[in-house]
Amino acid sequence: MKHLYIVGIGTGNPEHLTIQAINALNKADVLFIPTKGASKTELADVRREICERYVTRPDSRTVEYDVPSRQTAGRSYLQSVDEWHAGIARTYEALFATEISEGGSGAFLVWGDPSLYDSTIRIIERVKAADQVEFDYSVIPGITSIQALAASHRIPINAIGKPVQITTGRSLAESFPQHVDSAVVMLDGEQAFSKIDAPDAEIFWGAYLGTQDEIIVSGRLADVAGDILKTRAEARERHGWIMDIYLLRNGGDRDE
Ligand SMILES: C[S@@+](CC[C@H](N)C(=O)[O-])C[C@H]1O[C@@H](n2cnc3c(N)ncnc32)[C@H](O)[C@@H]1O
């Protein structure tokens, strides 16, 4: 049977790779690298660098593939995601059928950890359910952008004994600050931190974490929100893309 390794690679620093991840990359006959158009070239470059640095078996092959982009016009969000995943599943199915030989193996290099705001596992399950190619798979954990954020700011993510919500920019206003004390916000294309009413919350923001271009800013939300907006816009303009994440915290360790 064919085998697939879904390998978490961390968030941009090749040294985020675990030994388990390096071993899995070396077990795979084929390494699949997604290319998502010019703005994501740097992400493909990180994956190529990881392969060059850690893959020592001489017969390993790299196969690059295009990820279709998500179509949004005239569709609900869920419809659009469903169609997009169906398209990616077809791409995966074709890759497994043509690039992995019977009894052979392949690996996907997944940004951060495969369990966190990533649909690789979901899409692989879809390919399995379609039952056109027989394969099994395993998941290797990676360092998430949440851990990279916490390490760069030198902070614990939770206040003592308190929960933390992980959410998106789109959903932040539904929960923070009314229902949760701490929220980690990912996938925020609308800078939701600048639209909520929580001037005294603390924000710990980071972009391009783990890479040479890493930027971090922290402080009282009302004092630093403007600075983050400006820094973010300038960085996005300079690179042509941005990935950022932040922790918002209302109250400290000892507040009840
Ligand atoms: C599709 S999700 C993937 C998350 C990934 N699986 C993980 O474990 O972090 C992409 C989001 O993760 C966050 N992210 C990933 N890498 C990042 C980085 N190097 N710096 C800042 N944020 C990052 C951003 O919020 C971005 O919008």
Could you characterize the architecture of this molecule?
This protein has 256 residues and is α/β, with parallel strands linked by helices. Helices cover 36% and strands 23% of the residues. It has two domains: 2-143, Cobalt-precorrin-4 Transmethylase, domain 1, CATH 3.40.1010.10; 146-249, Methyltransferase, Cobalt-precorrin-4 Transmethylase, Domain 2 (2-Layer Sandwich). The protein contains seven helices and ten strands. The chain has a five-stranded parallel beta sheet, sandwiched between helices. A five-stranded mixed beta sheet has the order 6-7-10-8-9, with helices on both faces. It is globular, with a radius of gyration of 20 Å. The protein starts with a strand and ends in a 7-residue tail after the last strand. The chain binds S-adenosylmethionine (SAM).
Write the layout of secondary structure elements.
Elements (H helix, E strand, L loop, with lengths): L1 E7 L10 H9 L2 E6 L5 H14 L6 E6 L10 H23 L5 E6 L9 H11 L4 E6 L4 H9 L11 E4 H7 L6 E5 L15 E6 L7 E6 H19 L4 E6 L7
Parallel strand pairs: 1-4, 1-5, 2-3, 2-4, 6-7
Antiparallel strand pairs: 7-10, 8-9, 8-10
The protein binds S-adenosylmethionine.
S-adenosylmethionine binds next to strand 8 and strand 10.
